[in-house]
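Incident log, support desk, overnight shift.

02:14 A customer reports that sequence design results differ from what the structure should imply. Their input is reproduced verbatim below. On-call engineer (initials T.W.) acknowledged and began investigating.
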């Protein structure tokens, strides 16, 4: 039998995972609205010319910020709870739902200005800012409710191996650092800036640190995927703790970088250097250990174990592609979005596979039993699409953030690259829609979470 706190944490994890899927569904809905907003005769129904851009802002924030953080919150609930902070975790889903509601409502506010700032696009209105704040506080409530240090009882309620826990704890540290970086930036930001420049500088540092949290969450999942696929953990908890420490330690300076002012080179360049040199070394060591274990310990696998092996390989493929494309950046052209779309795709496909693998443990129907065919090709469809999308961007080498008539001066090579990018984008979207269809279909049939965990293919380690 599970302890009472395990059952409570599983219930909260199910709510957060359900919220993550709802976020993706809403992101898809806003993508449809974006298309309709430019399609006759529906375009005549939109009187506010900025409505399209506001929908785009909400779509990007949902799909690239809230989706990552809501899944991460669900994964963190596998860690042992702090005995005196149970109420914080219980309050987190309502706070996040409130934030989500405010963000979605903001798209319909006439006369508000959309701002396409990097990392966190904004709608310049207090309602949108309040929505982001409420959602962020909800995620931090989950982080604060977990044991930041290991203790005698250091198992994982979601069935992940002990080696995954240090990376999840590293993600908690990264979330705290992101919050502190935002506070430091807000108090030291250069005054009297334009709205666009203000938000660009405000979220520059925090956005980089949130990437660290996502990558550490992905690394924890690599350990879990490999453990289930091979029947053994790819590295010890001691080594995992050392690597997590190596990953987090350089980023401890993050809240200090804005203190000299956001116009200073140390602020802009400092986070760029952290991203270049401190983000991936430790995860890549874990990747090597996981790859070696998967290649060495070949054995008959269940459908779920096969899915998790595919989850590792597809995520690693996009990670390596993102690393190669990032090393190829020489100017501010489409090589930049090529790099980050590959990198973001690596995290996304890992989170998708983990979401499907967690379903039976959280009381949903086992997708590997009821949707086996779709499960075999969904991660590959998304990964191939995202890879082609990124390669098309890289091949184009065109101007960044140029659309429609702004791209009229492109040459044949740039045109071919953008066409390839469009084909890859369609494949990636198809992979995302398939993921949502699998999850929603199997989420309709739920059973008791305690029974599900006892029979879950996500074996405990």
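02:41 Re-run completed on a clean worker. Output:
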């Amino acid at each position: 039998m599970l302890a009472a706190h395990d059952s409570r944490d599983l219930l909260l994890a199910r709510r957060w995972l359900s919220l993550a899927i709802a976020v993706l569904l809403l992101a898809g809905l806003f993508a449809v609205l974006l298309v309709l907003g430019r399609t006759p005769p529906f375009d005549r129904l939109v009187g506010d010319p900025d409505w399209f851009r506001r929908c785009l802002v909400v779509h990007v924030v949902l799909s690239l910020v809230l989706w990552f953080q809501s899944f991460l919150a669900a994964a963190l609930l596998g860690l042992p709870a702090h005995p005196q902070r149970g109420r914080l975790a219980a309050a987190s889903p309502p706070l996040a739902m409130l934030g989500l509601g405010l963000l979605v409502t903001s798209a319909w506010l006439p006369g508000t200005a959309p701002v396409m700032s990097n990392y966190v696009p904004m709608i310049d209105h207090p309602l949108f800012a309040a929505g982001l704040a409420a959602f962020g506080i909800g995620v931090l409530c989950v982080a604060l409710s977990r044991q930041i240090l290991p203790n005698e009882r250091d198992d994982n309620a979601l069935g992940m191996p002990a080696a995954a826990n240090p990376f999840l704890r590293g993600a908690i540290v990264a979330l705290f650092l992101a919050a502190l970086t935002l506070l430091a930036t807000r108090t030291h930001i250069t005054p009297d800036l334009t709205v666009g420049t203000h938000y660009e500088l405000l979220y520059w540092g925090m956005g980089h640190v949130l990437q660290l949290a996502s990558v550490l969450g992905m690394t924890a999942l690599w350990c879990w995927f490999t453990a289930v696929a091979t029947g053994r953990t790819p590295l010890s908890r001691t080594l995992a703790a050392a690597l997590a420490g190596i990953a987090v330690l350089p980023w401890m300076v993050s809240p200090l970088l804005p203190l000299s002012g956001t116009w200073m080179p140390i602020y802009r360049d400092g986070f760029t250097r952290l991203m270049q040199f401190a983000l991936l070394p430790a995860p890549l060591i874990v990747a090597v250990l996981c790859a070696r274990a998967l290649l060495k310990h070949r054995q008959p696998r269940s459908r779920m174990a096969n899915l998790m092996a595919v989850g590792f390989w597809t995520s690693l493929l996009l990670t390596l592609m993102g690393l190669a494309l990032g090393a190829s950046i020489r100017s501010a052209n489409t090589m930049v979005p090529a790099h980050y779309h590959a990198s973001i795709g690596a995290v996304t496909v890992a989170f998708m596979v983990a979401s499907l693998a967690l379903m039976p443990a959280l009381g949903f129907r086992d997708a590997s039993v009821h949707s086996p065919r779709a499960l075999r090709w969904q991660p590959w469809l998304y990964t191939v699409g995202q890879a082609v999308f990124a390669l098309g961007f890289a091949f184009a080498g065109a101007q960044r953030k140029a659309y429609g008539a702004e791209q009229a001066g492109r040459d044949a090579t740039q045109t071919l690259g953008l066409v390839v990018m469009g084909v890859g984008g369609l494949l990636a979207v198809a992979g995302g829609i398939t993921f949502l269809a699998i999850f929603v279909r199997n989420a309709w049939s739920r059973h008791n979470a305690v029974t599900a965990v006892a029979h879950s293919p996500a074996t405990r380690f």
